[in-house]
Amino acid sequence: MLTVRVGCNIHFECESSATVILLVNPRFDPERPIRQEKLDFGRATKSESFVDADGNVAYRVVLAPGLNKIQHDGFLGCHKGEKSLLFILTEHAMSYDNCEDSSHF
Question: How far is residue 70's CA from residue 17's CA, in Å, rounded to a whole number?
Fold first, then answer.
């Protein structure tokens, strides 16, 4: 089994506190176990997780005024011949320029 590193860094700059809903975790799948995972909401004043209608783990996060940096880092297991997962991850990384994003509220 091959281990693939997945994750993202998201920066939000807020003039006042703001509530966001984030879907950053890989979907649970016994064929692709999450071997290790770290999720840091930085300066967020509150966070809670819930499962949405599609079965995804989502986070409701209250961002603090100013710059908020959120980081997700994980190691996902996949089979060496599983080209579809590697293609999706490569396309995602290329589309989002290493998954960096800055949003302003």
Answer: 15
